[in-house]
Amino acid sequence: xxxxxxxxxxxxxxxxxxxxxxxxxxxxxxxxxxxxxxxxxxxxxxxxxxxxxxxxxxxxxxxxxxxxxxxxxxxxxxxxxxxxxxxxxxxxxxxxxxxxxxxxxxxxxxxxxxxxxxxxxxxxxxxxxxxxxxxxxxxxxxxxxxxxxxxxxxxxxxxxxxxxxxxxxxxxxxxxxxxxxxxxxxxxxxxxxxxxxxxxxxxxxxxxxxxxxxxxxxxxxxxxxxxxxxxxxxxxxxxx
Length: 240
Prior knowledge:
Elements: H1 2-23, H2 78-85, E1 87-95, H3 98-108, E2 114-120, E3 127-134, H4 137-149, E4 156-157, E5 166-173, H5 176-188, E6 194-197, E7 205-213, H6 218-225, E8 229-232
Antiparallel strand pairs: 1-7, 1-8, 2-7, 3-5, 3-6, 4-5
């Protein structure tokens, strides 16, 4: 009897353990606590202090953007602008030759801070082709006959000069290239023709450009130079 009761008791105990094992609930794992940088977890007094082993990620420094190059800029020419605004610039002339221009320049130089003399060639009114200085009118007429026979019928005998020489006019042209083409055709045919601008090529004129103070008497300066006229001129074109 006692042994049977012991077996029944062991059987009940085994059934109880099996039932507990089946119905038990697993304990959830402890939550991971993330400590701030430099903090240490709490320890009991009997726990050995252990060095912190937290790994701090390495942060690479971000390179600074390159600085833009500094470009030096020149200051505005305030002085030059102020100087130009304080000046009055005129041109006196025309003078027939270099000698009269030099005399006028010598009279003006003590009166103005800056001046310059320039030569101006007259603009050609056109171009002409001629055969120059044939010995007499008979020679010129014979040349005109030969020109017509060669196909150059546009010719004209000019009035005789004081020494009896005669020019043969071979045409007038509005531009130099056209005159040169006609002249070269005549030369190729054996005629000593020349191309030249209309008007006297020696009639160059001279002008004197001056820079004077803004309050200067320009009429008095013109009279001092002996010029017949005065014209406005850009101050920037004058030497400093």
